[in-house]
Amino acid sequence: MYSKDILKETEGIGTEATRASIIETLKKQDYITISKSKIYVTEKGELLCRIIAEDEIANAGMTAQWERYLKKIRSQQGTQEAFLGSIERFVQHLIEKCHKTSKTKKKTLQM
Questions:
Q1: Are 23 and 10 in contact (CB under 8 A)?
Q2: Whole-number Å distance between alpha carbons of 36 and 26
Q3: CA-based Rg of the chain, rounded to a whole angstrom?
Q4: Can you give the pTM of this predicted structure?
Q5: Please, which residues have CB within 8 angstroms of residue 41's CB and are 6 or more apart in sequence?
Q6: Which end of the chain is more exposed for a tag (fewer CB within 10 A), N or C?
Q7: CB 28: neighbour CB atoms within 10 A?
Q8: How many CB atoms lie within 10 A of CB 39?
């Protein structure tokens, strides 16, 4: 698929310290392959991208919102409890949404 484009996009994903482990995890789960220093998205990876494309967890805005609140916690304008409470509600929402997801999608991802 693309290589340099994906690498450019990953500049905003994670931190320098976590980026390599994110890529390694994607590779181990067969979502990407690496050949001659190029990253390729597998069929399984493309399917996952289509499934979560409209999901909140894939939304860069959600990550930015979390980062803003973490800054508030660092400056003592927010609390860890409030942040974790919002994360808990978000995860519960995702779990409920997953229960509604068709079994076909779940089986297909397990390839």
A1: yes
A2: 17
A3: 17
A4: 0.46
A5: 1, 6, 31, 32, 49
A6: C
A7: 9
A8: 20
